[in-house]
Fold each of these.
Amino acid sequence: MNNEWENDVNWKVHTDNKKVYIMRDHNWAFAAWELAKLDERIKGQSLVVHVDAHLDDVPDGVLVKNLLEAKTESEILSLSKGHDYTTGSLSSESYLMRIDNFIWASLARKTIEEVIYVSRYRDDIFKLEELREEETQLSKLIRSKLPINFNYKHQRFREIDDFLHAFDQDSFSKKSVTDLLS
């Protein structure tokens, strides 16, 4: 079995129709969402269902250099390429896209607006209200980078069964699931 993904932080694949993406490091989810928006396969202010051991909701994703200016596929891919921390070296560049801050990067670009988290992770979701209340230099900087009328809706389930019971069969359209798989 070929396990090239184990040694390559930039490893990613997608189906031919680009409706399903699989990546080793989650910062590439940002690229998948942004390219789908660029290609008009999704609209802005979309919903993401994030099922993971961690929340990946670090708000400094809004500080990624050139985040809001990126308009082309190559610019988006360049933004998405994080630093390979497995080398043991630290990056000299601040505010890179990482495996834990990509959700807020897409929130800042208004590609997504709502996130349903399914995670047993011990921490709570980082809330916009907390960011507004904090008076640290970093919080002020993050707030200054958020778009006007920034909106972030979220919901949290600690167990997959709780998530599945919260939504009935009609909550997600059968057409969208069929489209995803075709």
Note: The radius of gyration is 17 Å.
Amino acid sequence: MSTYLLSILAVYSSTVSAWGSSQHHPPHSWDSTQLSSSCSTLPTTTALMSTTPATCSAMPTFTYTSWKYTALTTTRYATPLPSPFKLTTSYAPHFSQASTLLPSGVIYTTYSLDRSLTSLQDGTYGQGAYARMWAPLSYNTSVPFTTTVSPTPLASSELIYPPPLYTACPGSADDCVDCYKLPSNFIWGLAGSAFQIEGGLTEAGRGPSQIDMFGALPNTAGYANAEVADMNYYLYKQDIARLAAIGAPFYSFSISWTRIVPFGTVNSPINIEALKHYDDLINTCLEYGIQPIVTLSHNDAPRNVTYVDPSFPDAFLYYSKFVMTRYADRVSNWVTLNEPNIGFGLEYFAARYILLGHAKVYHWYKETLKGTGQITMKFANNLALPLDSTNPNDTVAALRYQDYILGLIGYPIFLGQNFPQSILSTTSINLTALTESELSYIKDTADYFAFDPYTAGFATSPPGGIEACAADPTNPLWPTCVLGTNVQQDGWLNGQGSFAYAYIAPQYVRQQLGFVWNVLRPKGVLIAEFGFNPYDEFTRTVVAQRYDLERTLYYQWFLRETLKSIYEDGVNVIGTLAWSFLDNDEFVSYDQQYGLQHVNRTDGKFTRSFKRSIFDFVDFFHEFVER
């Protein structure tokens, strides 16, 4: 057992309240007096006793009155954002100054895919070479747009709130939440990613990415492709107008690496049309009062520059320079990579290239570009809890899972520590420790911790134990050697299941936030994605899909537990971003719907419709964010 495991073994074995100790926490980002509350917190047992029938003295009185119908609902409209958003500071030099930092001699061009040109020999980066890149990939769908669609004003009928939910008397768990407040600079809004929403994979000079194979011909049965997705590449102005109309102040999106650098590699041409596109996207956000949050790569690195490639760090920096010099003056928050801590397969050596690529961009932004915004990396982490908190083996299993999912990338960045010993000591793992100079370069290259805590589950040790599994590369559970489940020891699921892996299990939110706060000790925590995809939502009528009660409950309960984490556990949560702002391509499937808006992909217009959850999501922040 590692020193790390020994040091926090007791933490995992305790109840959620153990996360509440804040005596060693870094200072909060807003005045500590805001953490005080006029509410008096009572022990759960006392609060429950106060609501038992024995304490009630009310008696019913039975009378007749004249009958008449009464109006049960009133019409209420969403409040749009004030616009434009006025930048009070520049987060980096304007492009006219920053452009001197870019490599010289780079070709600015654009491409148009002509599949008949595959035999044309017009140079390393000519139209023939571009056609040959796309030769292995084709799709059975076509793009219905050829140019950016101008936004149209939203009809007032689209902004009518759904019927109010029945709200019972507050339970003991939420007695104090209603007077907790979030600071006025709290980051909240919605998110999406380029591959999943843009469409037009082969349009406007974009090069192929490593995930463009999903749904490519020969089309595997049941696999959707992203050639159409949500047509956001052409409808982005309308999408931004809709977010502004509903009142969401932040929009987190990603830029497509292969739109900017079609060939993906260092010193290859830059697509000028893509630079103009994202320039207008960011300006449109600001015009409508929305602050952009930009991810540089959301799972869509070039086909020829993957995480396992030693050239990845330099190629990623090359691309990032052209993006940041153009847009960094207007963007306050940057994410380098989306969830690079999962999906390794067995190629764990890629962790070194991921860390170095991220660190190179961080240092260049801070030290060369002199950017004053915030920059981080976004982690996947569905917290593992011990299935049996009294069983030390289950606690070790949960912590080992966290080592693989969180520690591998997180410890070097936030703690300056090497890869976890539990990983390095696994037999035949293809990973070597970072050098001291590498650790020094990587440490502290994130201004806060950002992650996607959709849900939580349980971990237990496998038959025969973890050590035997870790020593046996033929074991199906190797190298993590942990069994996961969402079924409690008593046989109950830990929450309402979804169409994928998320569960409505708000009882674990505080442990999710507490773990990353107390173990990694970041300056702040951003919930960069969280969401719920109800089972078979896509099979329902549109009007039924729009009344997405499960999704609303997921968000409301998750957010209320987040408030408790801030006030009762001392965790500096700086923001929350819902996934996704509309139904999208969930990597081969349109059936997995996380969207807070419905998309009609059969009317030729890709018409969007708000779901009830987006109204309730916005309402939460109108209630709890200080004005």
Note: The radius of gyration is 25 Å.
